[in-house]
């Protein structure tokens, strides 16, 4: 983490070692990310904020032959944080003190956007305003007078239109000038509020302890807003009870917000001129009409579920062939390497080490890549078009009663494809509690890898159309368990006040290919780099456990462990091979099938795995195995992601163990019930 | 039907109603918000300050979409019950 000392301010910028640093700040949905993408192109880096799992994007922009670092801060409405993302953004501005703030202001929502601008102007840092969506505003017949705005706010204002690149050159020019020290910070108090508020600010400023390094006016305003973090954290206790008997501003936070909006309303008419709209239908009327359908009381939910199902299905259509090529590629690589090892006369264990341990691990990670990429591509499309916020609103009505939020619901639906992005999607929750709740229930959603195994075993044991009903039944049970687990966690360990849900509905717009593609690319690279460092070594470890010391799985460490656990497995009707197959399923769920084929059909009988399984398992056993497999411990990739997101060994353990207990319970019950002679006969008759 | 709404139509003085009780197309003035400090601050930053004019764009028997200061906010049922609005005639 960077130092948080206060000397690193703009005063001592020009040591050549320190790059010029720019913070890109703005409300959500103002086109900030498009602007960031345009400025920095492929020179971007995605990671997490130190110690926080909020996404951080940094990029390089070249000005005057010198590179400047741009940090794309999470979208914020105000500098008094409400969400984790907003805390992160504010902490960056206060602690790391960028050399320039680019304030992205949406020209079509000037009134609300200027609220944040007023707060930024009080920070005492150089500010350049990028007036985004200029083209959209013009289209709607709104003209923002940039000159008047410059005169009013005392900072450069550059109208921007990302699709045409309008204004980008001017913005780069301002960045260059700022880097040369030619852009001054606006003087404190350049925006003045009502006499009552000004008197209160003056009073607080006068009493505040000296030398805090932040503009006193800004701090005074935060004190008046009763911002607990500033009052208790930033203003040191050493100064003693300086704020004792401070005259309270009637209305506190509301009074300050009110004053800011009042100021904006007074000056707004000077900034805007309304011409004739160029496009015939009013875009907001069109949006209203669409909204009436997609958020409809009855139709909203089917539309949302349908669209999400469509995108998950689409992701599979696109990703599966890619996945097959990648797997084939790695199989070829493994074979080549094994051949080479054989030629070089390496010991016998080298070949399986290379093919199964190393190449196998890399293949697992690589095979995930297209799926994760396409998922992020689809969710990027839904997000960029403005639809995702509507879906969240619709789902919130359904999930609110279970302590979950609408946004979490979207994450859970993504989980039907793959639990990994689903766990990552919990980031958007408004509180740590809801976020944890969403992460913990995510593994109960049956992902596509499990679907492959479940449908194979179901069709091996339940011929004809009956297999489909078994699969549907397991899915239904899964959905019920998600809701039930959420309800239980919400009512016990993660008890908390119901989160009131509200969300800004962004305007609908055509998704930008560049934004969506960059987003998917970055998320995938981010995922892969994390996966490679954990999944690949873990695969190697499990391979070693299944190979050494004897070279055959039956007498390996894993085989012995399976046999040692066999008595426990017997309670559920599982023999030791099934136990071992479940172990390997922890690496990647679809791996269970290959383990089963190694363990049961090792003689390479041409009859295939389904026949081998039917010979080895009874129907109660198969049912037990199906239920256990569907709900036990999430796969390694998901577990890793859960750890990365929660940074807690304890919660990761909970996420691994409670599904295991649940699975054992369900499998045991299914085995017992199916073993009752009457039921057994019924099942057998149905199958026969 | 909400009894408050009935009373409102009968009485000349305009009573504040929770936003959740306003039908689509209704306009009004925000009176107050029943929420803790943090939430109130957040809503204020979003432009939901007392005295602001708002329009109900859509209403789903509790959850609502409102238009305020040129933006569109979707509010869950819980939220829509905490925002009190004096409706226009």
UniProtKB/TrEMBL annotation, chain A:
Residues 19-181 form the FeoB-type G domain. It comes from the Bacteria. Signal peptide: none annotated. CDD domains: FeoB. It is found in: Cell membrane. InterPro entries: Fe2_transport_prot-B, Fe2_transport_prot_B_C, FeoB_Cyto, FeoB_GTPase, G_FEOB_dom, Gate_dom, GTP-bd, P-loop_NTPase. The chain crosses the membrane at residues 298-316, 328-350, 362-382, 402-424, 436-462, 468-489, 527-548, 622-643, 649-671. Keywords: Cell membrane, GTP-binding, Ion transport, Iron, Iron transport, Membrane, Nucleotide-binding, Transmembrane, Transmembrane helix, Transport. Pfam families: FeoB_C, FeoB_Cyto, FeoB_N, Gate. Probable transporter of a GTP-driven Fe(2+) uptake system. NCBIfam families: feoB. Belongs to the TRAFAC class TrmE-Era-EngA-EngB-Septin-like GTPase superfamily. FeoB GTPase (TC 9.A.8) family. This is Ferrous iron transport protein B. It comes from Carboxydichorda subterranea.
From TrEMBL, chain B:
The keyword Hydrolase does not apply. Pfam families: FeoA. It comes from the Bacteria. Residues 17-87 form the Ferrous iron transporter FeoA-like domain. SUPFAM superfamilies: C-terminal domain of transcriptional repressors. Keywords: Iron. This is FeoA family protein. It comes from Carboxydichorda subterranea.
């Amino acid at each position: 983490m960077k130092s948080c000392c206060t000397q690193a301010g703009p005063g001592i910028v020009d040591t050549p070692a320190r790059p010029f640093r720019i913070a890109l700040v703005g409300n959500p949905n103002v086109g900030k990310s498009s602007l960031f993408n345009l400025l920095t192109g492929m020179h971007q880096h995605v990671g997490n904020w130190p110690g926080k799992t909020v996404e951080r994007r940094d990029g390089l922009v070249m000005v005057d032959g010198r590179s400047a670092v741009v940090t794309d801060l999470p979208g914020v409405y105000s500098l008094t944080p409400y969400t984790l993302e907003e805390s992160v953004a504010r902490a960056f501005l206060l602690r790391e003190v960028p050399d320039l703030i680019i304030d992205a202001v949406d020209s079509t929502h000037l009134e609300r956007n200027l609220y944040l601008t007023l707060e930024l102007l009080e920070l005492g840092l150089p500010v350049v305003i990028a007036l985004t969506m200029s083209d959209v505003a013009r289209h709607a017949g709104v003209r923002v007078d940039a000159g008047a705005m410059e005169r009013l706010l005392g900072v450069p204002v550059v109208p921007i239109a990302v699709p045409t690149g309008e204004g980008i050159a001017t913005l780069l020019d301002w960045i260059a000038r700022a880097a040369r020290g030619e852009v001054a910070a606006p003087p404190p108090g350049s925006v003045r509020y009502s006499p009552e508020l000004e008197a209160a600010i003056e009073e607080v400023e006068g009493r505040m302890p000296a030398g805090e390094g932040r503009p006193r006016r800004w701090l005074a305003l935060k004190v008046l807003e009763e911002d607990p973090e500033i009052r208790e954290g930033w203003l040191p206790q050493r100064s003693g009870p300086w704020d004792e008997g401070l005259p309270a501003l009637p209305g506190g936070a509301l009074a300050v917000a009110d004053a800011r909006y009042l100021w904006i309303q007074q000056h707004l008419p000077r900034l805007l001129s309304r011409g004739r709209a160029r496009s015939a239908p009013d875009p907001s009327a069109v949006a209203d009409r669409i909204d009436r359908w997609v958020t409809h009381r009855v139709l909203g939910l089917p539309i949302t579920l349908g669209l999400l199902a469509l995108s998950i299905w689409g992701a599979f259509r696109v990703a599966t062939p890619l996945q097959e090529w990648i797997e084939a590629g790695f199989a070829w690589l493994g074979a080549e390497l094994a051949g080479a090892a054989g030629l070089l006369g390496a010991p016998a264990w080298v070949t399986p080490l290379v093919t199964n341990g190393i190449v196998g691990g890399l293949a697992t990670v690589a095979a995930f890549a297209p799926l994760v990429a396409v998922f992020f591509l689809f969710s990027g499309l839904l997000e960029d078009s403005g639809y995702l916020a509507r879906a969240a609103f619709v789902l919130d009505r359904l999930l609110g009663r279970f302590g979950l939020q609408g946004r979490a619901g979207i994450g859970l639906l993504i989980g039907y494809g793959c639990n990994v992005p689903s766990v990552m999607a919990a980031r958007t929750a408004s509180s740590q509690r809801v976020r944890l709740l969403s992460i913990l229930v995510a593994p109960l959603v049956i992902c596509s890898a499990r679907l492959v195994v479940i449908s194979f075993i179901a069709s091996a044991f339940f011929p004809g159309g009956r297999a489909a009903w078994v699969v549907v039944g397991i899915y239904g049970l899964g959905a019920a368990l998600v809701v039930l687990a959420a309800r239980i966690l919400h009512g016990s360990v993660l008890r908390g006040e119901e989160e009131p849900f509200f969300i800004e509905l962004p305007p609908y717009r055509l998704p930008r290919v560049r934004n969506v593609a960059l987003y998917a690319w970055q998320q995938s690279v981010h995922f892969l780099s994390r996966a490679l460092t954990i999944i690949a070594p873990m695969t190697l470890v499990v391979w070693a456990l299944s190979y050494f010391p004897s070279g055959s799985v039956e007498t390996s460490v894993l085989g012995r462990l399976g046999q040692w656990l066999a008595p426990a497995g017997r309670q559920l009707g599982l023999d030791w091979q099934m136990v071992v197959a479940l172990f390997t399923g922890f690496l990647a769920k679809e791996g269970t099938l290959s383990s089963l084929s190694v363990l049961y059909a090792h003689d390479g009988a041409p009859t295939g795995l389904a026949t081998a399984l039917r010979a080895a398992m009874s129907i109660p056993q198969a049912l037990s195995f199906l239920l256990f497999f569907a709900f036990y411990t999430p796969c390694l990739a998901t577990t890793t992601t859960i750890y990365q997101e929660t940074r807690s060994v304890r919660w990761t353990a909970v996420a691994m163990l409670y599904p295991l207990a649940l699975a054992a319970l369900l499998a045991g019950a299914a085995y017992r019930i199916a073993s009752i002679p009457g039921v057994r006969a019924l099942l057998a008759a149905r199958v026969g | 039907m909400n009894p408050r709404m009935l009373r409102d139509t009968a009485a000349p003085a305009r009573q504040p109603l929770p936003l959740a009780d306003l039908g689509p197309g209704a306009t009004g003035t925000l009176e107050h918000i029943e929420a803790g400090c943090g939430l109130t601050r957040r809503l204020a930053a979003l432009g939901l300050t007392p005295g602001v004019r708002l329009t109900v764009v859509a209403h789903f028997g509790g959850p609502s979409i409102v238009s305020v200061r040129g933006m569109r906010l979707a509010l869950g049922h819980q939220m829509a019950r905490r925002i009190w609005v004096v409706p226009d005639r």
